[in-house]
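Sample A.
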Amino acid sequence: MNNEQAQARLGAVIRKERERLDLSQEALADQVGLHRTYIGSVERGERNISLANIIKIANALKLSAADLVKKAGL
Protein backbone atom coordinates (compact mmCIF):
# COMPACT_ATOMS: atom_id res chain seq x y z
CA MET A 1 0.00 0.00 0.00
CA ASN A 2 1.39 3.40 -0.92
CA ASN A 3 1.02 6.68 0.99
CA GLU A 4 -1.89 7.91 -1.11
CA GLN A 5 -3.84 4.70 -0.54
CA ALA A 6 -3.18 4.86 3.20
CA GLN A 7 -4.31 8.49 3.34
CA ALA A 8 -7.49 7.63 1.44
CA ARG A 9 -8.29 4.70 3.74
CA LEU A 10 -7.73 6.74 6.89
CA GLY A 11 -9.80 9.59 5.47
CA ALA A 12 -12.68 7.24 4.66
CA VAL A 13 -12.67 5.90 8.22
CA ILE A 14 -12.61 9.41 9.68
CA ARG A 15 -15.61 10.35 7.51
CA LYS A 16 -17.51 7.20 8.50
CA GLU A 17 -16.86 7.73 12.21
CA ARG A 18 -17.75 11.45 11.98
CA GLU A 19 -21.03 10.59 10.28
CA ARG A 20 -21.69 7.87 12.88
CA LEU A 21 -21.59 10.60 15.53
CA ASP A 22 -23.77 12.85 13.34
CA LEU A 23 -21.09 15.55 13.23
CA SER A 24 -20.57 17.94 10.37
CA GLN A 25 -17.05 18.60 9.13
CA GLU A 26 -17.32 22.04 10.70
CA ALA A 27 -18.38 20.65 14.09
CA LEU A 28 -15.51 18.16 14.10
CA ALA A 29 -13.07 20.87 13.05
CA ASP A 30 -14.27 23.13 15.88
CA GLN A 31 -13.80 20.34 18.42
CA VAL A 32 -10.22 19.65 17.38
CA GLY A 33 -9.14 23.21 16.61
CA LEU A 34 -8.61 22.71 12.88
CA HIS A 35 -10.20 24.33 9.85
CA ARG A 36 -13.21 22.73 8.16
CA THR A 37 -11.40 22.59 4.83
CA TYR A 38 -8.54 20.70 6.49
CA ILE A 39 -10.98 18.04 7.73
CA GLY A 40 -12.47 17.79 4.23
CA SER A 41 -9.08 17.33 2.62
CA VAL A 42 -8.16 14.67 5.21
CA GLU A 43 -11.39 12.79 4.50
CA ARG A 44 -10.67 12.90 0.77
CA GLY A 45 -7.19 11.50 1.36
CA GLU A 46 -5.47 14.62 0.09
CA ARG A 47 -3.39 15.28 3.21
CA ASN A 48 -0.59 13.45 4.91
CA ILE A 49 -2.00 13.98 8.40
CA SER A 50 0.35 14.34 11.37
CA LEU A 51 0.26 12.05 14.36
CA ALA A 52 -0.80 14.98 16.56
CA ASN A 53 -3.84 15.60 14.36
CA ILE A 54 -4.68 11.88 14.20
CA ILE A 55 -4.79 11.89 18.01
CA LYS A 56 -6.96 15.03 18.14
CA ILE A 57 -9.40 13.67 15.58
CA ALA A 58 -9.54 10.22 17.17
CA ASN A 59 -10.30 11.74 20.58
CA ALA A 60 -13.11 13.83 19.10
CA LEU A 61 -14.49 10.68 17.45
CA LYS A 62 -14.37 8.89 20.83
CA LEU A 63 -11.70 6.47 19.63
CA SER A 64 -8.07 5.91 20.44
CA ALA A 65 -5.60 6.81 17.71
CA ALA A 66 -4.66 3.13 17.55
CA ASP A 67 -8.30 2.11 16.97
CA LEU A 68 -8.71 4.75 14.26
CA VAL A 69 -5.60 3.53 12.42
CA LYS A 70 -6.60 -0.10 12.93
CA LYS A 71 -10.07 0.52 11.44
CA ALA A 72 -8.28 1.88 8.36
CA GLY A 73 -6.29 -1.34 8.10
CA LEU A 74 -2.97 0.40 8.54
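Sample B.
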Amino acid sequence: MASHRLNRTLKRSLTTAALPTAPVSAQPAESDAMKEYNDLSAQAATVDEDLLKAQADLKTKQAELAKVTADLTAAAKAEDDAKASMTQFEGQVGEFTSASYRGARLSGVSALLVSSSRDDFLERMSALGVIATDNANAMRGLRSAVDQADNARTAIAEAQRRAQEATDAAAKLTSDIKQRKTELNARIKEVKQALNRLSPSEKRALGGVKDTGSYLGPPGAANTALQAALAKRGSEYEWAAVGPREFDCSGLTMWAYNAAGTKLPHSSRMQYKLGRAVSSNELQSGDLLFFDDGTGNPDKIHHVGMYVAPGKMIDAPTEGQLVDVRSMRGDGHFIGARRYAG
Protein backbone atom coordinates (compact mmCIF):
# COMPACT_ATOMS: atom_id res chain seq x y z
CA MET A 1 0.00 0.00 0.00
CA ALA A 2 2.86 2.30 0.65
CA SER A 3 4.89 3.38 -2.33
CA HIS A 4 8.35 3.86 -3.71
CA ARG A 5 8.94 7.45 -2.78
CA LEU A 6 9.36 10.60 -4.81
CA ASN A 7 13.15 10.97 -5.00
CA ARG A 8 13.72 7.35 -5.73
CA THR A 9 11.36 7.14 -8.66
CA LEU A 10 13.06 9.85 -10.68
CA LYS A 11 15.52 7.07 -11.44
CA ARG A 12 12.79 4.63 -12.47
CA SER A 13 11.09 4.33 -15.83
CA LEU A 14 7.34 3.89 -16.20
CA THR A 15 5.98 0.76 -17.80
CA THR A 16 3.42 1.01 -20.64
CA ALA A 17 2.74 4.52 -21.96
CA ALA A 18 4.54 7.34 -20.21
CA LEU A 19 2.45 9.44 -17.87
CA PRO A 20 1.90 13.08 -18.79
CA THR A 21 4.05 15.09 -16.47
CA ALA A 22 4.58 18.67 -15.43
CA PRO A 23 8.10 20.07 -15.64
CA VAL A 24 10.27 18.64 -12.87
CA SER A 25 13.39 20.32 -11.58
CA ALA A 26 16.59 18.38 -11.08
CA GLN A 27 16.63 16.40 -7.85
CA PRO A 28 19.56 15.65 -5.56
CA ALA A 29 21.00 12.16 -5.58
CA GLU A 30 19.26 9.71 -3.31
CA SER A 31 21.20 8.80 -0.17
CA ASP A 32 21.71 5.20 0.88
CA ALA A 33 19.47 5.79 3.87
CA MET A 34 16.68 7.17 1.68
CA LYS A 35 17.06 4.29 -0.77
CA GLU A 36 16.78 1.81 2.08
CA TYR A 37 13.70 3.61 3.39
CA ASN A 38 12.07 3.54 -0.06
CA ASP A 39 12.93 -0.10 -0.67
CA LEU A 40 11.61 -1.24 2.69
CA SER A 41 8.45 0.84 2.24
CA ALA A 42 7.77 -0.87 -1.09
CA GLN A 43 8.40 -4.30 0.41
CA ALA A 44 6.06 -3.58 3.29
CA ALA A 45 3.46 -2.29 0.84
CA THR A 46 3.56 -5.56 -1.07
CA VAL A 47 3.08 -7.60 2.09
CA ASP A 48 0.25 -5.28 3.14
CA GLU A 49 -1.50 -5.86 -0.18
CA ASP A 50 -1.08 -9.61 0.21
CA LEU A 51 -2.67 -9.34 3.65
CA LEU A 52 -5.59 -7.26 2.38
CA LYS A 53 -6.23 -9.76 -0.41
CA ALA A 54 -6.18 -12.67 2.03
CA GLN A 55 -8.62 -10.84 4.30
CA ALA A 56 -10.94 -10.09 1.37
CA ASP A 57 -10.74 -13.72 0.22
CA LEU A 58 -11.61 -14.87 3.73
CA LYS A 59 -14.71 -12.68 3.77
CA THR A 60 -15.72 -14.18 0.42
CA LYS A 61 -15.25 -17.72 1.72
CA GLN A 62 -17.17 -16.94 4.90
CA ALA A 63 -20.05 -15.58 2.82
CA GLU A 64 -19.87 -18.66 0.60
CA LEU A 65 -19.95 -20.92 3.66
CA ALA A 66 -22.99 -19.08 5.00
CA LYS A 67 -24.80 -19.55 1.69
CA VAL A 68 -23.85 -23.21 1.50
CA THR A 69 -25.10 -23.72 5.05
CA ALA A 70 -28.42 -22.14 4.08
CA ASP A 71 -28.56 -24.36 0.99
CA LEU A 72 -27.86 -27.40 3.15
CA THR A 73 -30.69 -26.48 5.52
CA ALA A 74 -33.07 -25.96 2.60
CA ALA A 75 -32.08 -29.28 1.02
CA ALA A 76 -32.59 -31.12 4.31
CA LYS A 77 -36.07 -29.57 4.66
CA ALA A 78 -36.86 -30.53 1.07
CA GLU A 79 -35.87 -34.10 1.85
CA ASP A 80 -38.08 -34.16 4.95
CA ASP A 81 -41.02 -32.76 2.97
CA ALA A 82 -40.45 -35.31 0.21
CA LYS A 83 -40.35 -38.16 2.72
CA ALA A 84 -43.63 -36.95 4.24
CA SER A 85 -45.19 -36.87 0.77
CA MET A 86 -43.86 -40.35 0.07
CA THR A 87 -45.48 -41.64 3.24
CA GLN A 88 -48.78 -40.02 2.31
CA PHE A 89 -48.86 -41.32 -1.27
CA GLU A 90 -47.56 -44.75 -0.29
CA GLY A 91 -50.59 -45.03 2.03
CA GLN A 92 -52.99 -44.05 -0.73
CA VAL A 93 -51.45 -46.44 -3.25
CA GLY A 94 -51.50 -49.16 -0.63
CA GLU A 95 -55.22 -48.65 -0.03
CA PHE A 96 -56.02 -48.93 -3.72
CA THR A 97 -53.81 -52.01 -4.09
CA SER A 98 -55.35 -53.68 -1.04
CA ALA A 99 -58.84 -52.97 -2.29
CA SER A 100 -57.99 -54.51 -5.67
CA TYR A 101 -56.67 -57.72 -4.11
CA ARG A 102 -59.84 -58.00 -1.94
CA GLY A 103 -61.90 -57.92 -5.12
CA ALA A 104 -63.20 -54.43 -4.59
CA ARG A 105 -62.28 -53.36 -8.13
CA LEU A 106 -65.46 -53.13 -10.20
CA SER A 107 -65.62 -53.42 -13.94
CA GLY A 108 -68.15 -51.64 -16.13
CA VAL A 109 -69.98 -54.89 -16.73
CA SER A 110 -70.29 -55.72 -13.05
CA ALA A 111 -71.58 -52.26 -12.42
CA LEU A 112 -74.26 -52.80 -15.02
CA LEU A 113 -75.26 -56.14 -13.51
CA VAL A 114 -75.74 -54.79 -10.03
CA SER A 115 -77.34 -51.49 -11.01
CA SER A 116 -81.07 -51.19 -10.39
CA SER A 117 -81.60 -48.43 -12.87
CA ARG A 118 -79.97 -46.35 -15.61
CA ASP A 119 -79.23 -43.52 -13.20
CA ASP A 120 -77.76 -45.94 -10.69
CA PHE A 121 -75.52 -47.40 -13.40
CA LEU A 122 -74.24 -43.96 -14.40
CA GLU A 123 -73.52 -43.10 -10.80
CA ARG A 124 -71.55 -46.33 -10.32
CA MET A 125 -69.53 -45.74 -13.51
CA SER A 126 -68.71 -42.21 -12.36
CA ALA A 127 -67.47 -43.56 -9.02
CA LEU A 128 -65.24 -46.07 -10.82
CA GLY A 129 -63.72 -43.22 -12.83
CA VAL A 130 -62.97 -41.27 -9.67
CA ILE A 131 -61.31 -44.31 -8.09
CA ALA A 132 -59.16 -44.89 -11.18
CA THR A 133 -58.17 -41.23 -11.33
CA ASP A 134 -57.34 -41.14 -7.65
CA ASN A 135 -55.22 -44.24 -8.00
CA ALA A 136 -53.29 -42.74 -10.95
CA ASN A 137 -52.86 -39.45 -9.11
CA ALA A 138 -51.54 -41.27 -6.06
CA MET A 139 -49.01 -43.15 -8.19
CA ARG A 140 -47.86 -39.95 -9.88
CA GLY A 141 -47.59 -38.22 -6.52
CA LEU A 142 -45.53 -41.09 -5.14
CA ARG A 143 -43.16 -41.04 -8.12
CA SER A 144 -42.78 -37.26 -7.79
CA ALA A 145 -42.08 -37.52 -4.05
CA VAL A 146 -39.45 -40.20 -4.67
CA ASP A 147 -37.76 -38.01 -7.30
CA GLN A 148 -37.84 -35.02 -4.96
CA ALA A 149 -36.27 -37.05 -2.18
CA ASP A 150 -33.52 -38.27 -4.52
CA ASN A 151 -32.84 -34.70 -5.70
CA ALA A 152 -32.76 -33.46 -2.12
CA ARG A 153 -30.24 -36.14 -1.14
CA THR A 154 -28.05 -35.15 -4.11
CA ALA A 155 -28.31 -31.48 -3.13
CA ILE A 156 -27.35 -32.31 0.45
CA ALA A 157 -24.28 -34.24 -0.67
CA GLU A 158 -23.20 -31.38 -2.96
CA ALA A 159 -23.81 -28.77 -0.26
CA GLN A 160 -21.80 -30.81 2.24
CA ARG A 161 -18.93 -31.01 -0.25
CA ARG A 162 -19.00 -27.27 -0.89
CA ALA A 163 -19.25 -26.55 2.81
CA GLN A 164 -16.16 -28.64 3.49
CA GLU A 165 -14.23 -26.90 0.71
CA ALA A 166 -15.23 -23.46 2.00
CA THR A 167 -14.34 -24.44 5.57
CA ASP A 168 -10.93 -25.74 4.53
CA ALA A 169 -10.24 -22.64 2.42
CA ALA A 170 -11.29 -20.34 5.26
CA ALA A 171 -9.02 -22.19 7.67
CA LYS A 172 -6.06 -21.85 5.29
CA LEU A 173 -6.75 -18.16 4.71
CA THR A 174 -7.00 -17.57 8.45
CA SER A 175 -3.58 -19.16 8.85
CA ASP A 176 -2.21 -17.10 5.94
CA ILE A 177 -3.58 -13.90 7.46
CA LYS A 178 -1.90 -14.63 10.78
CA GLN A 179 1.40 -15.26 9.02
CA ARG A 180 1.12 -12.15 6.83
CA LYS A 181 0.26 -9.97 9.81
CA THR A 182 3.41 -11.19 11.54
CA GLU A 183 5.46 -10.50 8.43
CA LEU A 184 3.87 -7.07 7.92
CA ASN A 185 4.57 -6.04 11.51
CA ALA A 186 8.21 -6.99 11.01
CA ARG A 187 8.36 -4.98 7.76
CA ILE A 188 6.74 -1.95 9.37
CA LYS A 189 9.30 -2.09 12.15
CA GLU A 190 12.08 -2.08 9.54
CA VAL A 191 10.53 0.90 7.75
CA LYS A 192 10.30 2.87 10.99
CA GLN A 193 13.91 2.05 11.79
CA ALA A 194 14.97 3.16 8.29
CA LEU A 195 12.96 6.36 8.71
CA ASN A 196 14.82 7.10 11.94
CA ARG A 197 18.15 6.72 10.12
CA LEU A 198 17.33 9.53 7.69
CA SER A 199 19.06 12.85 8.15
CA PRO A 200 17.10 15.75 9.65
CA SER A 201 16.94 17.44 6.26
CA GLU A 202 15.60 14.28 4.62
CA LYS A 203 12.93 13.93 7.27
CA ARG A 204 11.91 17.54 6.77
CA ALA A 205 11.71 16.95 3.03
CA LEU A 206 9.33 14.04 3.60
CA GLY A 207 7.10 15.74 6.15
CA GLY A 208 4.59 18.53 5.80
CA VAL A 209 2.12 19.51 3.09
CA LYS A 210 3.87 20.91 0.02
CA ASP A 211 0.88 21.60 -2.23
CA THR A 212 -2.13 23.56 -1.01
CA GLY A 213 -3.45 24.45 -4.45
CA SER A 214 -7.06 24.16 -5.61
CA TYR A 215 -7.99 21.63 -8.27
CA LEU A 216 -11.25 20.81 -10.02
CA GLY A 217 -12.40 17.62 -11.66
CA PRO A 218 -15.26 16.91 -14.07
CA PRO A 219 -18.72 17.53 -12.57
CA GLY A 220 -20.14 14.63 -10.63
CA ALA A 221 -18.69 11.79 -8.57
CA ALA A 222 -15.11 12.23 -9.82
CA ASN A 223 -14.91 15.81 -8.58
CA THR A 224 -16.66 14.91 -5.33
CA ALA A 225 -14.09 12.18 -4.72
CA LEU A 226 -11.24 14.53 -5.69
CA GLN A 227 -12.37 17.26 -3.29
CA ALA A 228 -12.81 14.68 -0.52
CA ALA A 229 -9.24 13.49 -1.02
CA LEU A 230 -7.84 17.03 -1.22
CA ALA A 231 -9.60 17.89 2.03
CA LYS A 232 -7.50 15.20 3.73
CA ARG A 233 -4.13 16.77 2.90
CA GLY A 234 -1.97 16.65 6.01
CA SER A 235 -3.53 13.42 7.31
CA GLU A 236 -1.00 10.93 8.63
CA TYR A 237 -0.21 7.62 6.98
CA GLU A 238 -1.22 4.53 8.92
CA TRP A 239 -1.03 0.96 7.72
CA ALA A 240 -4.49 -0.45 6.88
CA ALA A 241 -6.22 2.79 7.93
CA VAL A 242 -9.35 3.92 6.06
CA GLY A 243 -9.94 7.34 7.63
CA PRO A 244 -11.25 9.69 8.51
CA ARG A 245 -8.04 10.96 10.18
CA GLU A 246 -5.43 8.41 9.04
CA PHE A 247 -5.11 6.53 5.76
CA ASP A 248 -3.11 4.08 3.76
CA CYS A 249 -3.10 4.51 -0.02
CA SER A 250 -6.16 2.46 -0.97
CA GLY A 251 -7.86 3.54 2.24
CA LEU A 252 -7.71 7.14 1.01
CA THR A 253 -9.08 6.37 -2.46
CA MET A 254 -11.76 4.12 -1.00
CA TRP A 255 -12.79 6.80 1.52
CA ALA A 256 -12.85 9.55 -1.13
CA TYR A 257 -15.01 7.60 -3.55
CA ASN A 258 -17.27 6.43 -0.74
CA ALA A 259 -17.91 10.14 -0.08
CA ALA A 260 -18.99 10.34 -3.74
CA GLY A 261 -21.36 7.39 -3.39
CA THR A 262 -19.10 4.86 -5.13
CA LYS A 263 -18.11 1.79 -3.15
CA LEU A 264 -14.54 0.57 -3.65
CA PRO A 265 -12.74 -2.26 -1.84
CA HIS A 266 -9.85 -1.60 0.51
CA SER A 267 -7.12 -2.88 -1.77
CA SER A 268 -5.31 -1.22 -4.66
CA ARG A 269 -5.20 -4.55 -6.51
CA MET A 270 -8.94 -5.01 -6.16
CA GLN A 271 -9.65 -1.40 -7.09
CA TYR A 272 -7.64 -1.94 -10.27
CA LYS A 273 -10.10 -4.67 -11.31
CA LEU A 274 -13.04 -2.26 -11.18
CA GLY A 275 -14.00 0.81 -13.16
CA ARG A 276 -13.06 1.56 -16.76
CA ALA A 277 -9.49 1.44 -17.98
CA VAL A 278 -8.20 4.77 -19.32
CA SER A 279 -4.97 5.46 -21.16
CA SER A 280 -2.35 7.83 -19.80
CA ASN A 281 -3.16 10.45 -22.45
CA GLU A 282 -6.85 10.71 -21.51
CA LEU A 283 -6.54 11.06 -17.74
CA GLN A 284 -9.06 13.21 -15.89
CA SER A 285 -8.99 14.48 -12.33
CA GLY A 286 -10.39 11.79 -10.06
CA ASP A 287 -9.00 8.86 -12.06
CA LEU A 288 -6.98 6.40 -10.00
CA LEU A 289 -3.37 5.60 -10.91
CA PHE A 290 -1.85 2.22 -10.08
CA PHE A 291 1.77 1.22 -9.61
CA ASP A 292 3.45 -2.18 -9.52
CA ASP A 293 6.97 -3.58 -9.18
CA GLY A 294 7.80 -3.15 -12.86
CA THR A 295 6.63 -6.59 -14.00
CA GLY A 296 3.30 -5.38 -15.40
CA ASN A 297 1.56 -7.98 -13.25
CA PRO A 298 -1.68 -6.69 -11.64
CA ASP A 299 -1.07 -9.09 -8.75
CA LYS A 300 2.06 -7.07 -7.94
CA ILE A 301 0.31 -3.71 -7.62
CA HIS A 302 1.31 -2.11 -4.34
CA HIS A 303 0.17 1.52 -4.57
CA VAL A 304 -2.66 3.72 -5.81
CA GLY A 305 -3.04 7.48 -6.07
CA MET A 306 -5.66 9.84 -7.49
CA TYR A 307 -4.90 11.92 -10.57
CA VAL A 308 -5.18 15.66 -9.85
CA ALA A 309 -3.60 17.50 -12.80
CA PRO A 310 -0.88 16.85 -15.38
CA GLY A 311 2.08 15.35 -13.56
CA LYS A 312 0.31 15.38 -10.18
CA MET A 313 -1.63 13.01 -7.97
CA ILE A 314 -2.83 12.98 -4.38
CA ASP A 315 -2.01 9.94 -2.30
CA ALA A 316 -1.23 8.53 1.11
CA PRO A 317 2.45 7.65 0.56
CA THR A 318 3.98 5.61 3.39
CA GLU A 319 5.18 5.67 6.98
CA GLY A 320 6.56 9.09 7.85
CA GLN A 321 4.73 11.02 5.13
CA LEU A 322 1.43 12.87 4.98
CA VAL A 323 -1.42 12.83 2.48
CA ASP A 324 -0.50 15.44 -0.12
CA VAL A 325 -0.43 16.31 -3.81
CA ARG A 326 2.86 15.14 -5.27
CA SER A 327 4.53 14.03 -8.49
CA MET A 328 3.01 11.06 -10.28
CA ARG A 329 6.54 9.82 -10.79
CA GLY A 330 6.76 9.12 -7.09
CA ASP A 331 5.62 5.53 -7.09
CA GLY A 332 7.75 3.43 -9.32
CA HIS A 333 6.20 1.72 -12.31
CA PHE A 334 2.85 2.86 -13.67
CA ILE A 335 0.71 -0.10 -14.70
CA GLY A 336 -2.58 1.61 -15.55
CA ALA A 337 -5.44 3.91 -14.60
CA ARG A 338 -9.12 3.39 -13.87
CA ARG A 339 -12.16 5.68 -14.01
CA TYR A 340 -15.18 5.06 -11.78
CA ALA A 341 -17.46 7.88 -12.87
CA GLY A 342 -18.57 9.48 -16.11
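B remarks: The chain has a mean pLDDT of 78. Residues 118-196 form the longest helix (79 residues).
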